[in-house]
Amino acid sequence: PQGITLVFPANYAPMYSILVDDQDRIFVRTNAKDADGNYHYDIFSPDGTCYLTFSLAESEIPMAVKKDKMYCMITETEAGIPQVKRYAMEWK
């Protein structure tokens, strides 16, 4: 509308969201993308050591991580029902 000025910052925060699992591992979604346009996630140990980085599509949003399973909400069906995708995680 007239009279409103939008101010966009020159820089954006390097992270978008944080999720902690039942083992106190920290999952951080960054604003960085891979070559396919998927967002990077960094996983840190409770003491702050970075375990690994992986990528997920923008449509897959991690909601919970428990007992080495990651549950992601994904796009809704045509009927508007949200779907969940479960990933098994193996730690070495």
Provide a descriptive summary of the structure in words.
This protein has 92 residues and is an all-beta fold. It contains no helices and 7 strands. It has strands at residues 15-20, 26-33, 39-44, 50-56, 61-66, 69-74, 83-88. The strands form 2 sheets. The protein has a 4-stranded antiparallel sheet, with no helix packed on it. The chain has a 3-stranded antiparallel sheet with strand order 5-6-7, with no helix packed on it. Strand 2 (26-33) and strand 3 (39-44) form a beta hairpin. It is globular and about 55 Å long. The termini are far apart.
Layout of helices and strands:
Layout: E1 15-20, E2 26-33, E3 39-44, E4 50-56, E5 61-66, E6 69-74, E7 83-88
Antiparallel strand pairs: 1-2, 2-3, 3-4, 5-6, 6-7
Task: Please supply descriptive tags for the structure shown above.
mainly beta; single chain; 92 residues; three-stranded antiparallel sheet
Share of helix, binned: under 10%
Instruction: Report the end-to-end length measured between terminal Cα atoms.
Output: 55 Å
Strand content: over 45%
Main beta sheet strand tally, sense and closure:
4 strands, antiparallel
| Rg (CA only) | 16 Å
Q: Can you tell me the residue ranges where pLDDT is under 50 for at least 5 consecutive residues?
A: none
Encode the helix/strand succession as letters: EEEEEEE
Query: With helices defined by DSSP (H or I, 4 residues minimum), what is the helix count?
Result: 0
Report the mean per-residue pLDDT as an integer. Answer: 90
Class computed from helices, strands and strand pairing:
mainly beta
**Strand order of the biggest β-sheet:** 1-2-3-4
Shape: globular
Total number of beta strands: 7
